[in-house]
Automatic annotation (TrEMBL):
The chain crosses the membrane at residues 268-289, 301-319. It comes from the Bacteria. Coiled coil: none annotated. Keywords: Membrane, Transmembrane, Transmembrane helix. The keyword Membrane applies. Signal peptide: none annotated. PANTHER family: GLYCOSYLTRANSFERASE (PTHR43685), GLYCOSYLTRANSFERASE 2-LIKE DOMAIN-CONTAINING PROTEIN (PTHR43685:SF2). This is Glycosyltransferase 2-like domain-containing protein. Residues 19-190 form the Glycosyltransferase 2-like domain. The keyword Chaperone does not apply.
């Protein structure tokens, strides 16, 4: 049930109204900073919605202290990020724009205001911001869409970023998808996209951005306003470090995105991706002998890729693994 509403029955107007959605799961270490930064920047017409996915730590208890300032839903089970975002979106039918904010994100000064101002231009449907990691350095939050050559191009992009090579590497929706950790989007366009894909975790941002790209919408990315992202705070015991427990979801979501390509394209992708992953395994073995975690990551990634490859190649658009999706009975039963 809803424990509290920040703003009830606000009047519809031509002004931009924001519903900021935060989905939590075992987020006790970061949620206070996350909500504190959002609350300080929201207006009376905005609403913060927090959906807790059945946390087993102290997250729910912490959230109850914010019940007078946010709209809070405590779910009994973990239904995944996409389901929670879609559930919240249907609860705020009057709002004009949405923001999806991870619980391990701390928005910088003026970020919400800048997003609101960007949407004053009615042609703008997507807004993103510069991302920093816990070390204060850039944590690139846009990536190339999965494709036959995306692996090679991503390596080149990472080299450019690593050595600060001067190059036009700004966000471009035609080439990049925006990380869903801090994303502002026009609600009507999000609904037209049929909400987030029903993944349990990872990959929903790729498919949404691909839809927006196909619609030719205008996207804005601000490099002079940033947010802090402590990646993996809900899935890792150490905030700021990724957890590789969701590696199967990450591997599957990329293949799912590409499964509607032609047989020839799927085959070419598999060959080039296999070469890329095998090379990374060899490089990690030779040069990162002391970094057991990184070596194990690349090895597991290669094994998962091989495990899913045959079904991906043969089944094409029929390629699906139910364990990575929220079932239709769940989606239809509660939303």
């Amino acid at each position: 049930m809803w424990l509290a509403l920040t703003e009830q029955g606000f009047e519809m107007s031509n002004k931009v109204t924001l519903s900021l959605i935060v989905v939590t799961y075992n987020s006790q270490d970061t949620i206070k900073e996350c909500l504190g930064a959002l609350i300080r920047q929201c207006t009376s017409a905005d609403e913060i919605l927090v959906y807790d996915n059945g946390s087993v730590d102290n997250t729910a208890k912490i959230l109850e202290d914010y019940a007078s300032k946010v709209s809070l839903y405590l779910a009994p089970n973990n239904s995944g990020f996409s389901y929670a975002c879609n559930w919240c979106t249907k609860k705020v039918s009057q709002t004009s724009h949405l923001a999806f904010i991870n619980p391990d994100v701390v928005v910088g000064i003026d970020l919400v205001h800048r997003a609101r101002g960007a949407f004053d231009d009615r042609s703008v449907s997507l807004v993103g911001f510069f991302c920093k990691g816990k070390n204060g350095l850039q944590d690139k939050n846009f990536r190339r869409y999965p494709s036959i050559l995306s692996g090679l191009l991503t390596i080149i992009d990472n080299v450019i970023l690593r050595f600060n090579i001067k190059c036009n590497s700004s966000f471009n929706l035609k080439k990049h998808y925006l990380d869903g950790s801090c994303m502002f989007v026009d609600r009507s366009m999000f609904v037209r996209a049929n909400y987030f894909q029903d993944f349990f975790l990872y990959g929903e941002d790729v498919i949404l951005c691909d839809f927006l790209k196909q619609k030719g919408i205008k996207a804005i990315y601000y490099s002079d306003v940033s947010y802090l992202h402590l990646r993996g705070a809900s899935s890792s015991s150490i905030p700021g470090e990724r957890s590789w427990s969701m590696l199967p979801n990450m591997t599957y979501s990329e293949l799912f995105y590409l499964c509607r390509r032609s047989l020839l394209s799927r085959g070419a992708y598999l060959i080039l991706k296999f070469i890329e992953l095998l090379s990374l395994v060899m490089v990690s073995t030779l040069f990162w002998r002391k970094n057991k975690i990184k070596r194990e990551f690349y090895r597991k990634r290669l094994l998962l890729f091989i495990q899913y490859s045959l079904a991906f190649l043969i089944q094409g658009k029929g390629f699906t693994k139910p364990e990575f999706h929220v079932g239709p009975e769940k989606l239809n039963g509660e939303i």
